[in-house]
Amino acid sequence: MAQGHLIPFLALALQIRQRTGCIVTVVNTPLNIRNLRSLLPPSTSIRLVELPFRSQDHGLPPESENTDLLPPTHVIRLVYASFSLKPSFKRLISDITQQQGHPHVCIIADMLLGWTVEVANDLGILHFAFITGSAYGVAIFFSLWLELPHRRTESDEFSLPDFPEVSRVHRSQLSAALLNADGTDFLSICNQKNARLTLMSDGFLINTVEEMDKIGLEHLRRKTARKNSISHSQMMELAKGLEASGKIFIWVLRSPIGFNVNEEFRSKEWLPDGFEERMRESNQGLLIRRWAPQLEILSHNSTCAFLSHCGWNSVLESLSQGVPIIGWPLAAEQFFNSKLLEEEMEVCVEVARGNSCEVGHEQIASVIELVMGGTEKGENLRRKACAVKEMIEDAVNDDESYKGCSVKAMDEFFYFCRRKIE
Questions:
Q1: Which domains, from first to last, does the chain contain?
Q2: What per-residue confidence (pLDDT) applies to 43?
Q3: DSSP-assigned letter for residue 21
């Protein structure tokens, strides 16, 4: 991107190499790699790798690989063109982790390259976004593009819905592109997608000072504090799918990803218009804020299925009650828990995967009907789930005449420890 991004990146790479001894590979397009190579000390062990890129293929002037010579109107086109680097970047990271024998890899990427988060998630490795501006400025920038608050008022001044600590923003502080954005234009789509992906990073590295940038830093910490939530658009589709299914449900509501987990749930913004009122009037759905007694609900005879992120504790609670699962894994090992449950144990149907995938309400309603609608598949899921329930009960049996496998394993653990101590 711009020199203002490349030079701090190089300084960060040198710091990491000097302070940790880690192998550092800087990845960029050919022109930028040539520029970086000229800035590195001759004795450096930092590796530079080029990704193939032809700016002309994306409607840009020749050798337009950073913003130095680009007019402002072309910058977003360059950012969008960077998505074409994803396949070659993924191959490179796979090669580093597998063929070159470096399994512990961490991606540090520019905040404008949100697609690198998807690569990290696909390969199961850490991702951090490097921000060369202030946390405060970037937090407001992301908030403006994601929320477009200036579109909701005629006033020259307005507040940021997800960043209330900030004083009101004035229209004169917005770029012309942002002022004209309506959420459906190319700039909105590109910037919103990038912001959502970047906010899914494991964390941020920011070139700032805690004491002078505290408000912005605290906001970004909140934004990345939790990945076990779905996006705003996915939440909308889930609500529509639940309503379309016609099945009675309990839904524990939490803020979508990218919003403060502690703030009040905003039904009018995050759910379809009139959804909560219709569910209350029809008695189809009970909407609960933040927390509900999960095990108590799962143990009720009327509970037919559990839509879960497939965290293992939730899986065990559901199966211990013989309740099959509709899987929507979001992070970490949850994807593989879902794979085990669906492919090996046959007690689950996966409806979606991750908080960046596109899922429609028709698909959600279809899976709910498959699991809960008296189908042959649904009956088989319940039969298998009940068999697993008996398996779990057997494992924790602690009668004198018979001890289950989990109880035996615990006894063996205690015996081993005592023997080592003695």
A1: 3-223 (3.40.50.2000), 232-395 (3.40.50.2000)
A2: 82
A3: -
**Residues in a beta bridge with 48:** 26
379 by Cβ neighbours in 10 Å (0-12 / 13-18 / 19+) ranks as exposed
Q: Kindly report the pTM of this predicted structure.
A: 0.58
Question: Which residue pairs from 368-373 have beta carbons closer than 8 angstroms and sit at least 24 positions apart in sequence?
Answer: 368/241, 368/242, 368/245, 368/247, 368/305, 368/326, 369/245, 369/247, 371/304, 371/305, 371/324, 371/326, 372/245, 372/247, 372/304, 372/305
Rounded Cα–Cα distance for residues 280 and 196 (Å): 32
Q: Residue 213: what are its φ and ψ, rounded to 5°? A: -130, 30
Cα separation, 265 vs 357, whole angstroms = 23
Cα–Cα distance list, 83 to 28, 114, 117, 184 (Å): 13, 9, 12, 19
Weakly modelled stretches of the chain, pLDDT under 50: none
Task: State the pLDDT at residue 365.
Answer: 97
pLDDT at residue 124 in the model: 80
Q: Shortest CA distance to 275 belongs to which of 261, 259, 287? A: 287
Query: Which H, E and C letters describe 165-176, residue by residue?
Result: CCCCEEHHHCCH
Residue 99: which residues within 8 A CB-CB, separation 6 or more? Answer: none
Q: Give the residue from 351, 326, 348, 330 showing the smallest Cα distance to 339.
A: 348
Cβ-proximal residues to 71 (8 Å cutoff; 6+ apart), any chain:
none
Tokens 């189908």 appear where?
375
Kindly state the helix (H) or strand (E) to which residue 308 belongs, with its residue range.
strand 306-308
Give the per-residue pLDDT at 261: 63
